[in-house]
Amino acid sequence: MSQFVIKEHEIEPLPGLPGVPPAGEVILWQGRPSSALVARHLLKVRWIVGYFLILAGWAVIAGVNDGQPAGGILFSVAVLTALSGVLIGMVELFAWAVEKTTLYTITTERIVMRFGVAISMTLNLPFRQINSVAFARIGGKTGMIAIGLLPEQRISWLIQWPHVRGFRFSRPEPSLIYLPDAEKVASVLSAAIGQYRGARAEQPRIIVQDTATGALPPSVVAAE
Predict the structure, then answer these.
(1) For strand 27-31 and strand 103-107, is the pairing parallel, antiparallel, or unpaired?
(2) What would the pLDDT profile of 58-77 be if each residue is shown by its tens digit?
(3) Torsion of CA 167, 172, 176, 177, to 10 degrees
(4) Where are the beta strands (DSSP E) in 116-200?
């Protein structure tokens, strides 16, 4: 898959694309992950807040039981509050950076993923390299879309993170993560791949599977 990855692009002829699309290729959708969803579901910011609230409560209870003065208890709580503020700020900043540096594109021929907080990269996934697509609903219309590649196509899980499915290290699956309009995107992608496969009878169609459990399902079985 190394030939599909372009590193540190500085100039994009079109936003999110490494080059001008060839004649006949049409952009169907472009979008980004939601920083709020990234912070909440990927970076577990709510768990971090809860953890520091428990620590602060414990500091107050322990201080009272030990007979510490109110000033000492307030100082301990203030230190914990400051630490939690710094950590939560870093989490929110990273989530914001993921949103701002990421742009997903679906065309009539491929999926293009531009991402990278530290080093900008572009992953080009022609439909002919895609074996399966899975859609996981997080809540409402939000969710994630995982892309299973043909066996001969390989990517690096570490380089692709967080735009990759779960902990599938042996067979990494690039993913469009934490989309606020994932339901619409899944429909667009399903239709695009269906039309692409339908025009090439020698290749199977791909069906997008929807799950409301929040966990990405197994690879979708090719049909027709």
Answers:
(1) antiparallel
(2) 989 988 888 888 888 898 89
(3) 10
(4) 121-126, 130-139, 142-149, 175-179
Which pLDDT tens digit goes with each residue over 127-173? 999 988 999 888 888 999 999 998 888 888 888 899 998 888 888 99
166: left (phi over 0), alpha (psi -120 to 50) or beta: left
d(CA 38, CA 51): 19
**213, 136 contact by CB (below 8 A):** yes
- State both tokens at 103: 């742009």
Residue 221 clears pLDDT 50, i.e. is over it: no
Token representation of residue 47? 């768990």
Is 0.70 topped by the overall pTM? yes
pLDDT over 80 (residue 57): yes
CA 56, 60, 80: angle at the middle one, nearest 5? 30
Distances 110 to 27, 57, 62, 196 between C-alpha atoms, Å: 9, 52, 59, 10
pLDDT of residue 24: 85
DSSP state of 13: S
